[in-house]
Amino acid sequence: MLRSNTLLFLVIFSLVFVSCDSKRVFDEYKSVPNKWHKDSIVSFNITPPDSTNAYNLFVNLRNTNAYKYNNLFLIVEMVFPHGKTIKDTLEYRMADPTGKLLGTGVTDTKENKLWYKEGVVFQEAGEYQVNIQQAMRENGKVNGVEELEGVTDVGFRIEHINSNK
């Protein structure tokens, strides 16, 4: 009896776990050592599955309570296979008005799924590169934050738009 209950639990758990992330096409994280230096670029090489479907793109971020800002500025650059480059400066809210960090997670580490681009069709065949760099500034200061504390991992995610994929 105990063995059949355990087996049933494992089967149900496996089905739930696998089906929860049916939108994922690409999902990868890279660790940031101790502090994220302003000149450090986190890069991802991506070969899209096709050139006809549209996808949603996200920057994923894991941060700890050592992150002391309410927002986050990133420079995200996409380099196309034939050399074209699109560079965006993006701002994300990282804390609520009381200073409580946003994101999911029950421990001191929070995970944030940040919108990058919606409905992207990868029309060029070949490998794309996505480069992500922090661009934080403190109020009243011209120079950027040299070493950003509290960010542990930076990720990039591509999702199918329709959940029936």
Structural descriptors:
single chain, Jelly Rolls, 4-stranded antiparallel β-sheet, 1 helix, 10 strands, 46% strand, globular
Question: What secondary-structure arrangement, pairings included, does this model have?
Answer:
Blueprint: H1 2-19, E1 24-31, E2 35-37, E3 42-46, E4 54-63, E5 71-79, E6 85-93, E7 110-121, E8 128-134, E9 147-149, E10 151-160
Antiparallel strand pairs: 1-10, 2-9, 3-8, 4-7, 4-10, 5-6, 5-8
Please sum up the structure shown.
It contains 1 helix and 10 strands.
Structural description of this entry:
With 165 residues, this protein is mainly beta. The chain has a single domain, classed as Jelly Rolls (Sandwich). About 7% of the residues have low confidence.
CATH C-level class: Mainly Beta
| Alpha carbon gap, first and last residue | 37 Å
Please tell me what the overall shape is: globular
Mean pLDDT: 87
Broad structural category:
mainly beta
At the fold tier of CATH, the topology name is Jelly Rolls
What integer value in Å does the Rg equal? 19 Å
The CATH architecture classification is Sandwich
Parts with pLDDT < 50 across at least 5 consecutive residues? 7-11, 13-19
> Approximately how much beta-strand content do the residues carry?
over 45%
Strand line-up in the sheet with most strands: 1-10-4-7
Protein name: Gliding motility lipoprotein GldH
Keywords: Lipoprotein
InterPro entries: Motility-assoc_lipoprot_GldH
Pfam family, one: GldH_lipo
